[in-house]
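Table S2 (continued). Query chain:
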Amino acid sequence: MLQMITWLDKNFNSLQPTRATIMRALRHLRPADRKKLFSEDIPEMRTAEGRWFEAIVYEMILDLSLQTDLILSVVARGADGPAKVRRAQLGQNGLFYSNIGDIKVRGNGQDLAEVDMMLVDHTGALTFGEIITSPADLKEFEAEIRYKKQLLGYLYGQPTVPFLLISSVDISRTAVVRRLLREPDNVLLTTPTCEDLKALIRPRDLKQSSTRRIKHEKLVSIADIPPRRPFDYKQLHDERMQSIIAAVTTDRGVGELGTPDEIPPIVKKVLFGGLYPSAVRMLDARYPIRVKGKTYDPDTIQKQFSKVILAVNIPEYRPILYLRTRDKKEYLKMVPSKADGFKFESRRTPHMAGFFLWLESVKPSLGAELTRALLDAFPAVHGPEAAAAPEP
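Corresponding output:
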């Protein structure tokens, strides 16, 4: 299983990206993104540059795959993805393409993970890759990689899932990367900087690139590598939800939540349900809700929001509230405040198609007693003292 990534580790730098390679990569960018590659708006330019760099690495891997039998196939992405894609919907589980050719793993329609690159080696084992252009993106990177390893390992029945980290900057000395590289199935590959790559083209070259798909003997679609273990994410979610409820409402207690069990560790967020009015009143009395500095009383909550959903992130067991606004098609995501209660963090709109549909399907099911038991079990909402509390 490790022969392919070992070969890539030794041979990746033997193929330096040429002008032809980076011009070919432009076919994966939408016209608007191509224009932003040389934009004076730095955030817009960096975003377009990141997508372009992902495409450059993909084209490099396609070229390298022809030099070895250890790479059985490369999973198509970007412009090589399907012309028509399946929109996210409830009950959807497995691997899918987004409308711009990104590779997504969905559970009950929700995007569980996005994978920059996927390869299949000569034994049929799956390897995934992440492509980055800045060391600033590493804050939650390690946990993200470990989750993707668990998720893909579960879906494809692999005890280990090799991982390629491809970067345009030297990140080998960062603590996160050093920890990842201690594992024999992880490899770091480094390319020239984006500035050096961009120096090979001029703005006028952007009009010359094609958006057509290519034919390549090792390209496969994600439909060609279906999971070996089909899964019902909603069923696993509900099993995890019931295990949490059982832990906090019985003598076993919240301390049991971190104990390994037979439920696959791929559910990373549990939606417990909508709150009945009695639960909303209890919630507001014990854990104040603040939006942009304004504290909401129960009557204001009921007036401005049609639904309050209680959720929790796993494995940190950090509670979240989703408030459905009455005048807009959106949810306000509320997270624990450092003081106490919940504060506004961001919005969830129909743009997050699968997850938004799941939120819309949630009905009121939580009374005051169960809501209080759940919230009391999660230390993140207990104010400053919670910072020193051990993780469950």
